[in-house]
Write a structure and sequence with these properties.
By secondary structure, this protein is α+β, with helices and mostly antiparallel strands. It contains four helices and two strands; from the N terminus they run ααββαα.
């Protein structure tokens, strides 16, 4: 199930737009650097979803809301879709329980775009 979004076989592909993808990437870095909501360990913006591995310093619900609200407004403005849903309501979060698991997730995130190109 996790691989299906990676193939960009379903859902809108708005993140293929370089300006939209940059908006999301900038927001992720802002949440880390300026807001200090988390330490950003790894991330990738795919055509129809985003993977991030963070070490949160505030509530996950606050982080998710901040990222999704800001990027939805910005992306929709860029795409001429103001006031419409951009992200799914659901996020597929997972608590990492060990450094071994964290390293596996980092490898998965970093290999994600390469695996999609090979399909």
């Amino acid at each position: 199930m996790d691989r299906e979004p990676d193939r960009a076989a379903c859902g809108p592909l708005w993140l293929r737009d370089e300006n939209v993808a940059r908006c999301v990437a900038d927001a992720l870095r802002f949440g880390d650097g300026q807001l200090g909501f988390y330490d950003l360990r790894a991330w990738v913006v795919m055509a129809n979803h985003v993977h991030i591995l963070i070490y949160p310093t505030t509530a996950l619900s606050r982080i998710t809301k901040a990222i999704k609200n800001f990027t939805a407004r910005q992306a929709n403005a860029l795409l001429g879709r103001t006031g419409r849903p951009f992200w799914q309501d659901e996020s597929y979060d997972h608590w990492v329980r060990s450094s071994v698991e964290a390293n596996e997730i980092v490898r998965y995130i970093e290999a994600n775009p390469l695996a999609v190109r090979a399909l």
